[in-house]
Amino acid sequence: MKLGRLNHIGVATPDLDASIAFYRDVMGATDVTEPFVLESQQVRVCFVNTPGEGGTAGTQIELLQPTVADSAVGKWLERNPLGGQHHICYEVADIHAAKAWFESLGKRVLGEPRIGAHGTPIFFVHPKDMGGQLTEIMETPKEAH
Amino acid sequence: MKLGRLNHIGVATPDLDASIAFYRDVMGATDVTEPFVLESQQVRVCFVNTPGEGGTAGTQIELLQPTVADSAVGKWLERNPLGGQHHICYEVADIHAAKAWFESLGKRVLGEPRIGAHGTPIFFVHPKDMGGQLTEIMETPKEAH
């Protein structure tokens, strides 16, 4: 596998609207996407766009608020009530090839590929197999034609 | 303040060489900088370069291994023995203006600006004032002439 683009850093928050205000008013973000509910992950989510090199799109901050306390992100927030860095997400060209790659190395892939917040297939790999980082692998979105 | 480039994600590790091997052999990184000791932070450090959009330089992964157990990163690893995401670092144009900005908002800036791993001045802001994220602010390196 070849290292892909660092698509986003997932940041959990107990209050999505307060986090959006923080990124706008404290950090100076000018481009934050409209929040929506991603039912498959039981989260309300939006993206803070950060500037990349030379006017390109940089790595995003994905803000995540659980919609249900008894969910993966809800339980994480119980242990980290202020919120914080929850996961890291890399792009790959082919999600099924990536799943086979991690599995061939004995890494625990958490479930089958499913559609993520960017509309392309994703899966997560267990943090205990990834240097303590919950790692999301997402298929790079195809450009619109 | 205007949101700057997401320069790097700081990832703490109990074994820098094993982490470099992980990024190379599992994640497929092809560009990892030579490790060096950053005395001011009591860490041995290197950077994994990730590809940005359109061939630009992406957000880096900064791997950090404490050189002393009784240090900031050493104590963090005691609580998180596998390692994991330790901090997030944004670039700013002017480090002193950024310090004044965060202080004017009542954010706890941890010490005076000092030279960081990229050779430019940096400071950290307390995670409890930043949505649970230890946040590094660094002055953007000047281009070589």
UniProtKB/TrEMBL annotation, chains A, B:
Keyword flag Isomerase: yes
Protein name: Methylmalonyl-CoA epimerase
Annotated EC: 5.1.99.1
Pfam family, one: Glyoxalase_4
GO MF entries: metal ion binding; methylmalonyl-CoA epimerase activity
UniProt keyword list: Isomerase, Metal-binding
Cross-referenced SUPFAM superfamilies: Glyoxalase/Bleomycin resistance protein/Dihydroxybiphenyl dioxygenase (SSF54593)
